[in-house]
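Wait, mind explaining this?

_____
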Amino acid sequence: MAKENHHRLIILGSGPAGYTAGIYAGRAGLHPVLIQGMQPGGQLTTTTEVDNFPGFEHGVQGPELMEKMRAQAERFDTETVFDSVTAVELGGKPFRLICDSGDTYTCDALIIATGASARWLGLESEQRLRGFGVSACATCDGFFFKGQEIAVCGGGNSAAEEAIFLTHFASKVYLVHRRDRLRAEVAMQERVRNNPKIEMVWDSVVDEVLGDPGAGGVRGLRVKNVKTGALSDLPVTGVFVAIGHNPNTEIFGTQLDKDEAGYLITRPDSTATSIPGVFAAGDVQDRVFRQAITAAGTGCMAALEAERYLVELEEGSHQ
């Protein structure tokens, strides 16, 4: 039976930003409710080894890291709810959230940590080999491909930047692009051209990622020339998809200010959005870094700001 619940603070999203916000808000005695969304743990649950999160000198599996964060948040009385928000009403107080289960939640303060989703190519083989040589984060996973040949798919600034970054580890980087020139900025194109480790694969799209998760992962990339239709295989052990990210902000419509790419806009040096009492943390408002550690940092900030907002709200109501 559907029910309606009111809480001082609700956190949307269960990645590093959401769970860190839960830890700090819980320690502040706010007893927050954290609604996990459709993918509890966020993007890190699709990552195998996380080697760059402080405190894990030998690395940690992505799902394990998120489970530890969840347990820590719950230790401080953060209530985690497995549900997904389908509609949000931010026009009045309290804020109102309608969930897929039919339950409704209201709150005095809201932290949005719904993250961003990498754009993928949409291939079955790509989906099957995610975490087994297929990645959407060069900063996260490039280290694991030292001395190997890898491919980057895309033609914008992100693809060019990732290709250049990956040359610090890989012996060779194929940059696969469907056109005969990059869309990246001119200076970035020049850097790509001048890097001897990068080989351009022009006028080509990915036809299939070759390999098996149970037999060493990626062992090649089949590409198709869009002009001739010819197929060829690249001898790579890693494939990085760099065609952009989509912030998970659709459910907020036009209620909150966003940039041209859909990321929530927050005030400088703050997680405060355009609506007082609504805060945004993690990849949903970060189009630059998109790292677990930076998401966790803004989750901390959001919880501290939400606590301050609630104190001021309650003090004002008693005057």
